[in-house]
Specification:
Order of helices and strands: EEEEEEEEHHHEEEEEEHHEEEEEE
Distance between the termini: 39 Å
Structural class: alpha+beta
Strand content: 25-35%
Number of strands: 20
Number of helices: 5
CATH superfamily: Aminohydrolase, N-terminal nucleophile (Ntn) domain
Largest sheet: 7 strands, mixed
Radius of gyration: 19 Å
Number of domains: 1
CATH topology: Glutamine Phosphoribosylpyrophosphate, subunit 1, domain 1
Helix content: 10-25%
CATH architecture: 4-Layer Sandwich
Length: about 300
């Protein structure tokens, strides 16, 4: 399980996803699993994430997902057609791959979320799942034989500021108050930094809530698509520990005549810490200097 949250308005698409993987018994397997990426197709630029089966034996969802999206784009690189082909490929793969079939049927559940802007300037969001029924709002306890697609397109241009909030994974741990606060920021077109900070803070709180059952971590990938420059996705990272690396988004250029680029699990590293957890200004800096955070690595206000 995981938690992934997407927010959209006239200015940006923002995605936040945790990196924790848990075992079938609820134990934490790793805090450093990338489950997010950026897909370019002929008529859309979208961020994607997934929840559910992440790895089993020789199967790795992140790697397979990129390859399957690329294969689907070979059939048709337009967004709606691409995701329909992807659902068909996923259905066949989950019916035939020995590693997937060796997992208990309850553990084969998978949902993929893709959200972004179309080339015509509309917000688009798609959910592809083998266990979630988005018509009857039912989550099946075991994987179903077929992946289905639920796709929504905003009925007004993004420039008119329609807003969207979508979550997958431990979404029951998100409250109406969380959604209301995020919606207010989207509607008033708050700066990117403010929306991102609020979204990551909420996901951090969800990590501690009983309803997430320990399946959501505090090390978070973030991604952003700017409405004015939708072909570029900006990656970010939040962590509850000091780190010297920033994990990036997976990248896939599936456009007709494009670069056919595939970049997976890229991480930028340095010799000094570059990621610091959010702490109280008067607390000791997590870098270990012995100084208060406000006198050490606390970001300075401009």
């Amino acid at each position: 399980m995981t938690f992934a949250l997407v927010l959209a308005n006239a200015d940006q698409i923002i995605q936040v996803s945790d990196r924790r993987l848990t075992g079938w018994d609820g134990s934490v397997f790793t805090e450093a699993s990338g489950k997010v990426g950026h897909l370019l197709c002929d008529d859309a630029s979208v961020l994607y994430s997934f929840t559910g089966l992440a790895t089993f034996r020789g199967f790795n969802t992140s790697t397979w997902l990129m390859e399957a999206l690329q294969a689907a784009a070979k059939k048709d690189a337009r967004f709606r057609e691409l995701i329909e082909h992807f659902a068909d490929l996923a259905t066949e793969y989950f019916r035939s791959n020995p590693d997937v079939l060796s997992a208990p049927v309850k553990q084969r559940r998978l949902t993929v979320m893709l959200s972004g802007y179309t080339s015509r300037g509309h917000i688009v969001s798609a959910l592809i799942s083998n266990f979630q029924d988005f018509v009857n709002f039912i989550d099946h306890p075991a994987a179903q034989p077929q992946f289905t697609v639920h796709c929504e397109l905003s009925n007004m241009p993004a420039s008119e500021n329609p807003t969207m909030i979508q979550a997958i994974g431990a979404f029951n741990a998100m409250t109406d108050v969380d959604e209301r606060e995020l919606r207010q920021l989207l509607e008033k077109r708050a700066p990117h930094a403010a929306i991102r900070a609020k979204a990551t803070a909420i996901v951090g709180e969800i990590s501690d809530r009983p309803r997430s059952a320990g399946t959501v971590g505090k090390r978070l990938n973030t991604g952003r698509i700017d409405y004015r420059s939708p072909l570029i996705a900006c990656a970010g990272y939040e962590s509850d520990i000091v780190e010297q690396g920033i994990p990036m988004l997976d990248m896939l250029d599936a456009r007709t005549g494009g670069t056919d680029l595939l970049i997976s699990q890229l991480q930028l590293t340095t010799d000094v810490p570059v990621v610091y957890p959010v702490v109280h200004r008067n607390a000791l800096c997590p870098c270990g200097s012995g100084k208060k955070y406000r006198f050490c690595h606390r970001p300075r206000r401009q």
